[in-house]
Amino acid sequence: MTWADLGGGALRAALPLAIWGIVASAYAARERDGRALVSARWSALAVFALVVVASLSMVGALLTHDFGIRYVALNNALETPAYFSAISLWAALEGSILLWTTVLAGAVAFVAWRGTRALPRLATTAAAILFAMLSFFLLLVVTPAADPFTRIDPAPLNGRGPNPLLQDHWLMGLHPPLLYLGYVLFAIPFAYALASLILGEGGDRWIVATRRSALVAWALLGVGIVAGAWWSYAVLGWGGYWAWDPVENAAIMPWLVATAYLHSVMVEEKRRMLRTWNVALVVGAFALTILGTFLTRSGVVNSVHSFTQSAIGPLLLGYLTAILAFSVGLLLWRAPRLADRGPIGAPLSREAVFLFQNVLFVAATLTVLLGTLYPLAVEAVSGAQLSIGSPYFDRVEVPIALALLFLMGVGPQLPWHGASRATLERQFAGPVVVAAAGAIAALATGLRGAAPVLGYALAAFVVATVVQEVLRGVRARRALHAEAATVAFANLFRRSGRRYGGYVVHVGIALIALAVVTSQAQVTQVEATLAPGGSLEIGGRTLVFERLRDVVEPRRTQVVADLRLVDGGSGSPLTAALTYYPNATGAIGSPGIRSSAGEDVYAILAAYDARSRAWATFQVKVIPLVSWLWIGGLVVGIGALIAGLPPSRRRDAVVAPSTVPASSPAGAQ
Amino acid sequence: VSPRVLVIAGALATALAVTVAALPRAEAPQDRVERIAAELRCPVCQGLSVADSPSDTAREMRALVEQRVAEGRSDDETRDEFRRAYGDWILLAPPLVDPRGAVWLLPLAAVIAGALFVAARLGRAPPATPPSADQLRVLRERALADEAIE
């Protein structure tokens, strides 16, 4: 039996089981039939097992270079190292859809087994919806639209090898699966929301039940985006990390909407409001994951991430349309049960800040969508070609981002329902002073322009509000539970993880903001053509060009420039290279990067003497604070982890009430 | 010092610092080159600007921008030169004053419309009625089943 028989057979067996799953779970939910539920559970598990077998067969085929499979022949070669062979599972369209299907099958199994235990009827209905989505993807992978196991006969002796961009850096093993996990896991809150509408529930049970999946999906997508930015920085060799490329836009849109969602559900949980809005947000976030896949996988827009065109475009568009029509229809049908009563809250209340934050996140998303689609629309209408790139997105998104940073500091400091003037003054005296210090520090380091300096002020403001909250929380715990400061600090995160984990996320975002502002505003750049032995000066350092050498490997050839970065003392070696793959026309830049907490030295080999290796042209950049972008991403991930972990159940001992401070600080509420 | 004084002083100092940072300043020729190059699309790249791209084409285009800046041409003259050669496509953002400038106005309209929509719904919430026994039970169960929602 070949890998193709095994994998293709598993997928073909999975499809009818998934369709049976729709029927069984719909029947189980409607008739409250326990046997049907058991049947649905086992089909979910069987489908998941079969799809895992199919994915592993593909990995096996890639590792053993089974060129009888078209996908392997196109995305693998005998010279491809094992690591890059294995991760070629997501190197092109068919494999990516297979991975997507696998994650979705896992989500279905999770809901069918775990979800139905807590909320049998709601989760079973959600499982039916998820089974339907899974059937669609299984249909894609067993038909020519995206069949990963299509054969070619006779099998070629060697394959074409993976896309060069995908076999150049280990981060490729991390960035795409994180994004896919994030994308697909949004299906869980989406399915629960629709199930809640179908059952006519007016409440927020679906939100509580899917809180953790939404948070996990959001965090994986966010960390995946940062990992992608890091990959772009380390591989694409242009010294940047975000280009407003259509695929980047496709990833950031659902993340933005999901961020709005994670905050607005707190209003529903706390105040029983915004029910329609929250369903709309979760539908929007999920639809945007499909839209992004459609845009980038159908060849409609060009991007570094585009795969070959295929018949999958119209199918995905049909799927997206069906999902939107179904969701909007349900929402309109059930809207009367979801209506809010009465005003939302005072203008200076936490719920008001959440709402304005939602407006900004949705506007930011619409801007990205508009900028991505506008050139297509103009070309379709008038035939004129135009570009929408960084200058547009930066100019529109930076003010929105600054406003969001401001609200990020303000929101958690305001009480629900409304705040008195005295509360406002008490909450903001410290942070506003720190913001001023941040702005002055930015000026002192030579930063100019309103947006960067305001960015520093607001990042400082956010961090100050978090520090203030944590200090108050520690003080409250010490008074209430007679804990030592360190114990109280740890317990804040263990007992109130959702709240303090959220603060950690805010600090991560503030770090990212600082890194972006500084690395954009204060880049030093030098370009020079040097002969071996020559040197250039940049930012108080000397970069010596020692020599060029040719490195020939079976799968690629490289022209490597040996450099020495002298920063006092004898200096340290650094290499910048251009890499040529046989299946690509252009060279892939492998910049030399020397990272430190303060700044990165980023050396690009831009051109060289092809004949005698007698000279080379370098672009060298000194980019301050850029590594804090990756650290910020990690902090966001850690914060989400703290917020998502189940809180410790143990009751705290409360000491005598006489030691409780008269005015209870905000952190102890 | 009272909290009120701190808030006012801090806000004023921040506003002052941002104003100082925003003061118009003479732009060095190199900065002008970078700014213009950042608005031009690198024709051989995937969505990168001339300023960002390390490609040969982009380096030649940047050299031309540098030359035009040195000759004392205005930003518009330089941009128009590229526009004539490559079409509107070469600019990474459409001009503000342009039939296609709607792309600039729509996000602003979305923010204003959304903010007005929210503002119209704000107001002092009615005083909370004491929760019913049933609601209390639900709340208690939820608190036990999960962490306390602040």
Please describe what this structure looks like.
The complex is a heterodimer of chains A (669) and B (150). Helix content of chain A is 62%, strand content 10%. Chain A is of the alpha+beta class and 669 residues long. In chain A, strands 2-3-4-5-6 form a five-stranded antiparallel β-sheet, with no helix packed on it. A four-stranded antiparallel β-sheet of chain A has the order 1-9-8-7, covered by helices on one side. In chain A, helix 1 (3-31) packs antiparallel against helix 6 (120-142), helix 10 packs antiparallel against helix 20 (627-644) and helix 14 packs antiparallel against helix 15 (390-410). Mean pLDDT of chain A is 89; it is low at 657-669. With 150 residues, chain B is mostly helical. Chain B has six helices and no strands. Chain B has helices at 3-22, 29-38, 56-70, 75-86, 102-121, 133-145. In chain B, helix 2 (29-38) crosses helix 3. The longest helix of chain B has 20 residues, at 3-22. The radius of gyration of chain B is 27 Å and the shape is elongated. Chain B starts with a helix and ends in a 5-residue tail after the last helix. The model of chain B has no long low-confidence stretch (mean pLDDT 82). At the A-B interface, helix 11, helix 14, helix 15, helix 16 and helix 17 of A face helix 1 and helix 5 of B.
Mean pLDDT of chain A: 89
| Low-pLDDT runs of chain A | 657-669
- Measured by DSSP, the beta-strand proportion of chain A falls in 5-15%
Characterize the main sheet of chain A: 5 strands, antiparallel
Order of helices and strands of chain B: HHHHHH
Helix/strand order of chain A: HHHHHHHHHHHHHHHHHHHEEEEEEEEEH
> What's the tally of helices of chain A?
20
